Amino acid sequence: MSRLPKIENPHRKPYPSDLSDAEWLILKPCLPTPKGFGHPVEVDLREILNAIFYVQRTGCQWEMLPHDFPPYTTVYGYFQKWQRKGIWQKIHDQVRQQLRHDLGKDEHSTVAIADSQSVKTTEKKEPVRWAASPT
């Protein structure tokens, strides 16, 4: 079984971290649209997401992105801009709500779980002293 995503017409060899066509259809509406003025967008936003997910999945530095992705400065610029504008949170919330809806659950969770277990590791114990046995 292949771990590569299902992509109808790939223009490069896919990576396991690439978005499948189905995933792209879910995320595309969450991304900001061009304003209609100024410099036109010349990069493929799907490739920007693929590059960001590649860095996230592999843990490589931005500068070490493979050359078949857009330049790392462009990819990192989009990553920072989307983080500043709250796009990542919006994507997370929309995907989560859609998944909860598809599972037949309330789209807005009302339950929170807190784990209060703690382990004391700084407590010092006194050494055990053995009483001398009478001889």
Automatic annotation (TrEMBL):
Cite a single Pfam family from the UniProt record: DUF4096
> Insertion element IS402-like domain: which residues?
19-92
Locate the region Disordered. 113-135
Question: Do you know which InterPro entries this protein is assigned to?
Answer: IS402-like_dom
Which superkingdom, per the lineage?
Answer: Bacteria
Q: Which NCBIfam families match?
A: transpos_IS5_3 (NF033580)
Q: What is this protein called?
A: Transposase
Organism of derivation:
Nostoc piscinale CENA21
